[in-house]
UniProtKB/TrEMBL annotation, chains A, B:
Region of interest: Disordered: 1-23
Originating organism: Streptomyces netropsis
The protein, known as: Nitroimidazol reductase NimA-like FMN-containing flavoprotein (Pyridoxamine 5'-phosphate oxidase superfamily)
Highest taxon listed in the record's lineage: Bacteria
Gene3D superfamilies: Electron Transport, Fmn-binding Protein, Chain A (2.30.110.10)
């Protein structure tokens, strides 16, 4: 399954390619460069976490954070995947996927329609993080992934909250990115068809912050929000 | 696993709840209403498709379309999940998850940070669609899910393209939605903390359409794009 096809180490600039991170289609879109993978991961904060439960696949959206070559997800100590990861010595096999859609690619032919996107797929094993300092750093990373600067501008978890929270770590070893960033690719024969063709860029932005109903008076909107 | 806990049928307004569509956490966020589920599915076009390969989970982003109580995904006849779904009589067990993030929920406590979101999780079986009329309708649905009106304003698939494309159908039977749409939920003791608290709404929009480099002169931007 996962036999390496190229030698690599943690220190190289690329993840080693394995059979399951080798694309069968559109191989030109595959990338293994660490910096590119990190940039795609750092541009998001919601991943789709896949695991196997009773032989069937389960995919759940959840927050993540990255510190170096490790991803973190978290949840209640009572939640299913977090219980499952802690119940075995070998951890929980997972697939973590992060996707950003950048544009709609409208070709003349329905067949050639596509999206411009950046995605990362991580195959790995989720293991409970037990070191308290690492748990705290992971939780800070999760908050700062959503809003950089926020972890330092909120109350850190109490011992009781820490006890109720499970953090799982997933090492970034078997990883690939897939990127499409181009215009429509119609065949020569379709170029004369009378259909408009091009890319519709997608934009994501932030609306004006909405204060909590019970926000105490006199607390200003913090700089990391006004700067958005 | 999936024993129904409440009677329901295709004609009722709600999906029947099963053990695996019953949330273990935040049960107040769970919904089984068909109209709500359809509205969340129809608001997107990229799903995260999970399946099991050699015992390990795989999660891939892919386009989808919905017609009634069936979802469709497509791909090359040579791609892994599409081959896997066609190789068995029982189809391929899948989990299809669609997620929209609507806002960042910044609480006073790091622990109470959250997102406002709408998600749908479909547990089911992907089966190859073999009826040609259904294949064509599914491909139209996939294109129109990305851009309503586009299927009729592009060249339909040729027989050769149809032969190279596999379409999988997944019946909507075991389905749940999860929705959070509220402000921060800090505990009473945290309300006096000096941290700003509230929701940062997220917005998604469309940039100006970028014509293909080889677009023939005189083809106007279609109305479904100028109306965005």
């Amino acid at each position: 399954m996962s036999a390496p096809v190229a030698p690599a180490s943690q220190e190289t600039s690329a993840y080693e390619r394995t059979e399951r991170t080798t694309l069968t289609r559109h191989r030109e879109r595959a990338h293994y460069d660490r910096e590119l993978v990190h940039s795609i991961l750092d541009a998001g904060y919601v991943c789709h976490l896949g695991f196997v439960r009773d032989g069937a696949p389960v995919v759940l959206p959840t927050l993540y954070g990255r510190i170096g070559e490790r991803l973190y997800v978290h949840g209640s100590t009572g939640s299913r995947p977090l219980r499952a990861a802690g119940q075995t010595d070998v951890g929980l096999p997972v697939c973590v996927t992060v996707t950003h859609v950048d544009g709609l690619v409208l070709a003349r032919s329905a067949f050639s329609h596509s999206l411009n996107y950046r995605s990362v797929v991580v195959h790995g094993t989720a293991r409970p993080v037990t070191d308290e300092e690492e748990v705290k750093a992971a939780l800070d990373a999760l908050v700062d992934q959503v809003m950089p600067g926020r972890a330092a501008d909120s109350r850190p978890a109490s011992p009781k909250e820490l006890a109720a929270t499970a953090v799982l770590g997933i090492d970034l070893t078997e990883v690939s990115a897939k990127v499409r960033d181009a215009g429509p690719m119609d065949s020569e024969a379709d170029l004369a068809l009378p259909f408009w063709s091009g890319v519709v860029p997608l934009t994501t932005g932030y609306g004006a912050p909405v204060p909590a109903d019970d926000l105490a008076p006199g607390i200003p909107v913090p700089g990391y929000l006004t700067a958005l």
